[in-house]
Specification:
Elements (H helix, E strand, L loop, with lengths): L3 H8 L6 E3 L6 H10 L4 E3 L2 H9 L1
Parallel strand pairs: 1-2
Helix pairs in contact: 2-3
Length: 55
C-alpha cells in the first residue's frame, strides 16, 4: 500500500477518483473520505454510510 502523502500530488491528475470500502470497522474511513472530498465516487455498504453520515 502506498503512502497517502506520496500519492497526493498525483490525485489531482486523475479525472474520476473512486473509493471502495465497507464492512465492520470501516465506518470512520468512509466518513473520512466523505469529509475530505478526495473521491468523486464512493462504493460502500448501507451500514457504513449510515454511520458515516451520522458523524
Amino acid at each position: 500500500m502506498a503512502n497517502l502523502a506520496a500519492v497526493m500530488p498525483a490525485l489531482g491528475t486523475i479525472e474520476v477518483k473512486v473509493a471502495i470500502g465497507g464492512g465492520a470497522g470501516k465506518e470512520r474511513a468512509v466518513s473520512a473520505v466523505l469529509r475530505s472530498g478526495m473521491a468523486d465516487v464512493i462504493i460502500t455498504d448501507v451500514r457504513s454510510v449510515q454511520l458515516a453520515l451520522q458523524d
